[in-house]
Design a protein that fits this description.
heterotrimer, A alpha+beta, B alpha/beta, C alpha+beta, A: alpha+beta, 20% strand, elongated, C: alpha+beta, 2 domains, three-stranded antiparallel sheet, 56% helix, rod-shaped
Amino acid sequence: MGGKMKKEAGVFFDARVYSPEAVKLAAAVFSGRLDISLKRTARGITATFGGAAERAAELGGAFANEALNQQCRMDLERKNSRLARIVLTKALLSATQRHAG
Amino acid sequence: MIQNAPKVKAGKQTLAAVPPHFYWQRLGGRVLLTNDAGCSSWLDEKDFRLLLKGGLKEGHPAFAGLAEGGFIRTRLDFNALALKNKRKEAHLQIGPGLHIFVTTLRCNHKCLYCQSGAISQASKGADMSWPTARRSVDFAFESPNRGITIEFQGGEPLLNWGTLEKTVRYARKKGRETGRELGLAVVSNFSLMTEEKAAFLIANEVSVCASLDGPEDLHNNNRKYAEGSSYKQTVKWLKYFRKKSDNQEGEKRVFRPSALLTVTRYSLGRHKEIIDEYAALGMDFIFIRPLAPIGYAKNLWGKIGYSASEFVRFYRDSLDYIFELNSKGTAIKEKMAVMMLKKIVRQDDPMFVDLRCPCGAGIGQLAYDHNGDIYTCDEGRMLAWEGDELFKAGNVFKSKYSEVMLSPAVKACAAASNLEMQPVCFRCVYKPFCGVCPVYNYEAQGSLWGSMPSNERCATLKGIFETVFLALRDKKKGAVLRSWVEK
Amino acid sequence: MEKAAKILVDTRKYPTETVRYAGYSLSGEAYVFLSPAGKKKILVELAPKALARGGAGGLRDKFLSELEDENGREAVLKANLELREFMLLKALSYQEKAPELKDSGLSHEQEKELDALIAQVESELKKESKKAYSRDPLGITRTWEERHDSKRAKSKSR
């Protein structure tokens, strides 16, 4: 079972629902605010949080939400990266041309 | 008939029946539809489900309107839709047009919500030197944008009048020599304005802008000025420049002064007084701007901040009051609504760097710090003042223009604010008209991408869009809104 | 943490990506936990945040509604991937036409005939003005010598 709160302050992310990359990105987002350690197994990743135990549930929930945020971004990238790159390239290209004068 | 379109595989439905790509949301008992071209339409739930299934046929009462808006696959006018999309997203074709010159960090005010990192008037080493300003002008003119706007900010820019004056002259000269369209603006608290300075600004077609937060007690509470009433100075000079504009002679353009409102917790519940203040001064616009938890405001958020829903309620009440004033003959418009309406009603680009995809950070605007450092935007510069240089793009003396445009800061902001890659925005009915702010996301949520379901800026904008779209549906309010953007 | 709403979703009807997004869309009001429940099901657990309205029931309804909407969006997206790209590229590269000249109301043939007529009249006017220059009944263009040389020749001969 995954995406579950464990007895210590931690959450398990099942690889069938959350890619390891999404969990790692979430850890990067929280790295300045929280002491996080990730333990990877074949089934998924367990994220445990150091610090205030009383806030463990809230932190775990926030972290789970961030992992889902990153996962949804990756899902969208798979579907729409080509179009996204066209827009981005056009914007940067237009801005990069120097004025002829 | 679809002509010159790519061949698409047919799924379970016949292809002709599938609607082209569009966005939708249930709102006020109906369903709002929008698309990439910026067209919008309303359907009731039953007709919406019919459209989604491909069952809305010619002859249906809604068919013609939907076809005209680009919501019917077999009636797509590719040229018309392409033109609308291109015009609405004109910023994608040009480079940075807005160049913010922070000519000094010194200030003689202590505003509660300051986002410029202002320091005391007596501080040393916080002014932009003339060589730096000149080089910054040269750098700004390297932008491919036909129109360049240099906006002097601070701190209080009038505290570094010498550099400001020289920069205005130099920029005007350069504008004439190169044939570029040049706009100049000063954002000031007006406390140091004199007739001599005003005459210079007018003679050089420099427009002026000041913060006006409402009646005297409210304004002064937000904007502390040790030497007197900030409100009195602001109003005095707004009236002065307004009179000059109304009585202009000669060939030089004298712009009407503009004012900015920053809504704090103290503003909530006082919308009528605030709007009356603007109306009494004959202001054409009131720009109801929400506060962002950046800069000093972040530290004081508990005291001066509010939730998105609180702000949206304030906005809605304000807009209703503005409608009331319009109906009585007071022609005042709300600026955020006007910018949104330009996209929604006219499919035009208002060139508002905060509401575009990608956002204007770097590619639409640049902020030049007093020491020549270049940032993606003024908010990004503020973060550097607090010790985080993530949004620094270069330096006017050390960096080439192309290096700045392709700097990690600019590229990261462009990528992070690309709505095609934001999970919620990609599906949002307001996507054709909206934009995200990577600096806000970073400050409030810890990453450039942010997470929109819990993003207060997103909730605020959704609330404003909802207000505007619902008002457009109302016969009277809609007529007022459309009149604001009529050509 | 109390996970007030628990919903079992059949991934044969709603693909995993759809379930993920539907859950994610509620992450402003709830903490969202997803886990596989058997081969073809996902368990969605929603723990409301402090400010969430509507409680567990409200969250559940919103989730189910979002699930349906997301399915609809996926269908529209899949059917329009290439068309959307075509339209975007067209918009980015669109060249606006120069404004057309005002219509004179004449057909092309009529315009050609008019041009020829104008050319003919201009040519006749030029000829007329040249002839006008060569006729001089009052002798204005004659010089003094031309006028008086003949008289001198007569007096010399006497």
